[in-house]
Design brief:
Blueprint: H1 3-8, H2 18-25, E1 30-36, E2 42-48, H3 50-59, E3 63-66, E4 71-74, E5 82-90, E6 97-104, E7 125-127, E8 133-135
Parallel strand pairs: 1-6
Antiparallel strand pairs: 1-2, 3-4, 5-6, 7-8
Length: about 140
């Protein structure tokens, strides 16, 4: 499936093997959820290891291990849509991180709205009763 169909299409194609693939890399990654402080909206989910988390905390900017590129990814480094860390939380089992952030730019998602602007977050579609994805009104582009 092309990136465009995956990122903009209506067909549900959840990757239930993602965690298996991540475990197979041997990189020791845990999930990291990114939530905007003002709205409480979850913007994105990524993965961090010890090195990446240390970089994120030192730079106070959301940084992930890109499982697609197999490298460190500073969110927004190339677009200017950085996510400034306000607070970092750890879940009870210490198996996930929550970054509370403020946006420094137009949005958080690497996908673009039809007008070419960054989307506020990555959760811009919902699953309807027919089992298809549909755009959420008001989430197609910047808030």
């Amino acid at each position: 499936m092309s990136d465009a169909k995956l990122e903009e299409g209506k067909e549900l194609r959840l990757d239930f093997n993602k965690l298996n693939d991540i475990a197979a890399t041997g990189k020791g990654l845990i999930p990291a959820v990114v939530q905007e402080t003002e709205t409480g909206e979850v913007l994105m989910v990524g993965y961090v290891n010890k090195e990446v988390l240390e970089t994120a905390l030192q730079e106070q900017c959301v940084t992930f291990w890109s499982t697609w590129r197999d490298e460190v990814w500073v969110v927004g480094k190339n677009t200017g849509d950085t996510l400034r860390i306000v607070e970092t939380r750890v879940n009870c089992e210490q198996t996930a991180i929550l970054f509370l952030v403020r946006l420094s730019g137009g949005g958080a998602c690497h996908t673009k709205a039809p007008d070419g602007k960054s989307r506020f977050g990555c959760f811009y579609r919902r699953l309807n009763s027919n089992g298809e994805l549909e755009m959420i009104p008001g989430k197609e582009g910047p808030e």
